[in-house]
Each structure stands twice: as structure tokens, then as C-alpha cells.
Amino acid sequence: VTRMKHLQSDELLAKFATIPNYAVLGGMLACSGLIGIYFWRKDQSSPEDTLLGGRSMGIYPITASLIASFLSALTMLGMPAEIYTQGTQLLAVLFFIPIISFVTGEVYMPLFHNLQLDSSYQYLEMRFNRTVKLVSGGFYTFSLMLYMAIVVYAPALALEQVTGINVDTSCLAIFMVCVFYTSVGGIKAVVWTDAFQLFFMFLSAFCILIVATSKAGGFFAVFERNYEDNRIQMFNFDLDIRERHTFWGTCFGFGFMWLNVFGVSQTQIQRYLSLPTIKDAQKAVRLNFFFMIILILMMGWLGMVLYTIYAECDPITAKQVKTKDQVLPLLVLHVAGDIPGLPGLFMAGVFSGSLSSVSTGLNSLAAIALRDFVPPKRLEQLSTIQQAFLTKVFSFLFGLIGYALTFVIRYLPGMLEAAMVIGGVLKGPIFGVFSIGMLVPWVNSRGILVGFFTSLFTMAWIATGGTVNKHFVPYHSRTSPPYPTNLTDCPADWMSDFQPTVSPIRTPMPGHFPLYDISYCWYMVIGASITIILALITTLFTSQDLKTLDRKLLSPVLPKMWSCMPNCLSDRMNKWWDSIGEDVMKDELEMQTFLAKKIEP
User: Fold this and answer.
1) 390-413: pLDDT as tens digits
2) In 274-414, which residue ranges form alpha helices assigned H by DSSP?
3) Sign of the CA dihedral 427, 430, 434, 436?
4) Are the C-beta atoms of residues 172 and 433 closer than 8 Å to each other?
5) Going by C-beta distance under 8 Å and a sequence separation of 6 or more, which residues neighbour residue 89?
6) CB-neighbour burial class of residue 536 (10 A; exposed 0-12, middle 13-18, buried 19+)
7) What is the pLDDT of residue 595?
8) How far is CA 580 from its chain centroid?
9) What's this model's pTM, rounded to 2 decimal places?
10) Relative orientation angle of helices 130-163 and 415-439, to the nearest 10 degrees
């Protein structure tokens, strides 16, 4: 392993502040804006053009957009840092990805594609009522705006403290470029800039991976060091849900989270619906998850390289950096700072992750605002051109709000923890609402609202208590590898001004409850489960009239499920299935007959 040289903040800045580095970063931002200008000149005369690309997009750009929206800047910086500090157990989610791919492509996506909606939350109004749609869509909008602010501010803060680039400058540049090309170019500009930015993300990660692995001594040296120090974990089957990462927690926790993202989230549903056929959408889903596996392996390997290089001199303990998210940018400047353009390429990759996440969010929020929050009567009074222009206005306004939120979240203690709490609290109940609506016909709006709000308040209580508890006596894992804190091989000038931190004596939080120690991985699972269970219980007293329920609002996978049963059971299930929506079908037939008679001369 190459011995590290002590780098002061001005030396770090000097390594990045070169013409090739800024040229690569500036070129990426400029090209993203030019793509928006290109699609500005194309036909955008209706909301279907600005939000869905005329439902005629190609498979490969949509696949690239799906991947880019997954690989955010938080993922590029956070996942290697998590592997560096916690070991490789997080990578066990790879075993669950084929299941996520199958369920997304067979259960969730076909229903949305058959309905041909602009917003996934329109489905909730059709399945339940307008109240369920507004409640779920409102909470989703809030969480997505907060996520956009954090996905820009958190990496910008990490990079500022390592490279010296001002955090406000980074945030302003990202939001200006994003708001511009999203507002003027619509979803076509968003999708093609995602594809362009994905190139930078892949290339930067691959180049840093190769250079850093070489500096660490090669592939076998990296694996051997992690193996010898018991950092290689994949099959920790501990059933304690307080453990930060276990096989069950990573598979089911991240599995539910990604099912929510790729199965019901507006950001991804909008992309599926921009493809002309279900077959194309299913192919895009499979390709997306295939490349996701490659990306996760690359990020995981970078985490192992981080440990190999810094195992005997942890830069966090040595106070070279303040948080674990800054360790990877520090590594880039240590091992590649003298290679012209490579730190700039890495920075362009991180900025691309933020750009793709924000542009995806802005376009999705514009669709939700137009289709779910604008009163239907008011919408009917607008022409298609006016509606298309309104989507651009919404994108611009949500961009301004997102940028303003970057000034709010910086004053919150534990910013990333607060984001994790809000995300975990909201995504589980919303995923539960969509899932039970698609798969359980007799659940009605009352049951959904009881389950949603009970789950929301329960998870808010657990997550808030868990966040506060970390500042008193946090739970110490029994199975995870210890945090790297070794300083034995640090250069002398690293330690010249080093003052060890004395840990204060901590006392348990007053009113501590064991649920506060639950790992964040389980928030999504618990939130969705509470929603589903309470909705089912409430439905026992207020059931849905199945004759008035349109079968198109249920997942088409249901008949396939019992087609594998013995004939005696499948025949009964088919009769029951045919009875669903009898009144709806009669009304449709009567309307068709009436219209046919009216047309006859």
C-alpha cells in the first residue's frame, strides 16, 4: 500500500484546482444544458410530450435513466463509506435483486402500463378515492423535495471540506442546470441527460476503482486484507432486528425499499409509461437491475479498497476528514490527485448523480402537481399547450423550493439522520397502500386511511426515538466488524496536532424503549406491514363491494397465481375473479349500446 502523505486543506484544493479538472466538470454541466436546449426545439405541445415523451421513448435511454436515478451522489459516496465502516454485509441485497426484478415487472408495472396514467397517484383515486390520493401524494411530494435538497447538499458539503469547492456554489450550479434543462426540455431532456451523465458516473467509478486498486496492491491484496480482518460478511443470519446489517435486514429492508422505488414511485413509473409497450417496459426493468448489480459490486469493491488503504490510519479518527462520506473524495485526491483530469472526472460523476436525481424528481413532481393537485375542472379549462407550459412552470417552482431547502436542512442537527427518518417513515406506509390496493380486492378507502395514518405515526415515533437515542446510548452491534480506528501507521505530520477525543460518559435516554434500537433497514418493512395488517383488519368491518370494483385496478398477476393450482381450486378462483366488477362491466356494456344506437342513422 502506498504510504500516504499528509495533505492540508490548501494542498487538497491545489490538487483539484487545475484546468483539466475544471474543464471536465464544466464540460459535463455545459453539455447537460445543451441537451435541454436541443429538446426545447422539439414538439412539446401537450403534457404527454413533456411528461411522457409521447409514450414513444426507446428502451436503452429509459434503462440508462432508471439506472442513473438509482445511482445518486449519496449512493456513490455513501455505499463505499458504509462498506468501509461496516463490512460487506450490505452487499447481501444482491441475492434479492432477481426477486425485486421479477415482482416489479410482473406485479406492479403491468397495471400502470395498462391504465396509461400520467401519475401513479391517479391510480389511488381510481382504486379508492380522492382523499387517499391527496394524502399519499402530498406526503410523497414532501419527502421527494426534501430528498432532492439533501442529495445535492450532503455531497456538496462533503466535497467542500475535501476539495475546497464552496458548498453554496455547488448547490446553485446543480439546481440552475437542472431546473433549466428539465423545464425547457421536458422528460426527453431528462432521460437523455441521465444517459449522458450515467456515462460520467460509470467512467469515474471505473477509473477510480482501477487506480485505487492498483495503489492498494492489487485485487488479491485488497481481498486478503479485508478477509483477514473479518470484513467479508454476506451470510450473517442473526435474527436480532437491532443489528445494523444482517442478511435478513439487507435483503428484506433494501428489497422493500427498492420495490417501492421501482414498483410504485412516480419517478420510475413515469419512465415505464414513456415506453410504447409492456414488453419494452419489462425489458427495461430487467436491464436496469442487471446494471444495478454491476454498480453495487463496483461501489462495494471501492469500500473494500478504502479499508485496505486506510486500515492502519483511519482519516476520520485522525481528523483528516469529519465524516465517512468524505473518505472516498479524500482517497481520490490521494491516489489520483496528480493524474490530469481524473479528480475532475470523479467530481463530474458525483455531480452527475445529483443532477440525475434532481431532474428526475422535478419532472415527477410536475406530473403529480398537474394531474393530482390541480382541480379537474380547472384543468379542463386549459388547452393541451397551456397544460404543457404549466408542467414547465411546476418544474421551475419545485426547483426553487428544492434549492431553498438546502439553506434549511443545513441548520438541522443530524441532517442525514433526519432524512433517513423521514424517508423511512413515509415510504413504508405509501408502499403498503399501493401494494394492498393492487393485490387485495376487498380493501376499501377507510381501511387504507386507518392503516396509513397508524403506520405513519407509529414509524414517526420509533424513528424519532431511535434518532434521539443515538445521542445518548446508541446500540452497539454484536455481529458487525468494528469501526476502523487504527492510527498506528499514520505519517508523523498527521499526528503532530492530533488531540484524541475523550468519549463522554453516556447515560440511557429517559423513557428509552427497546424499539428505538431497531436498525434503519427495517423501517420500510415495518411501515408497510402495519399499513397492510390494519387495513385488512378494518376491512373486516367495512368491506369493499367487489361488484363495483373495476378489475383493471387489480394486478394482472393475480389470475396467474392461481392458474398453477389444481383445477378444482383454480376453477373456483376464476369464478370468483369473474364476479369482480360485474356492475362495472354491465354499466360499460349499457353505455356502449347507448352510444352505438345514438350513432346509427
Assistant:
1) 888 999 999 999 999 988 877 665
2) 278-310, 327-336, 342-368, 376-380, 384-409
3) positive
4) no
5) 233, 234, 236, 245, 246, 247, 250, 480
6) middle
7) 45
8) 35
9) 0.89
10) 150
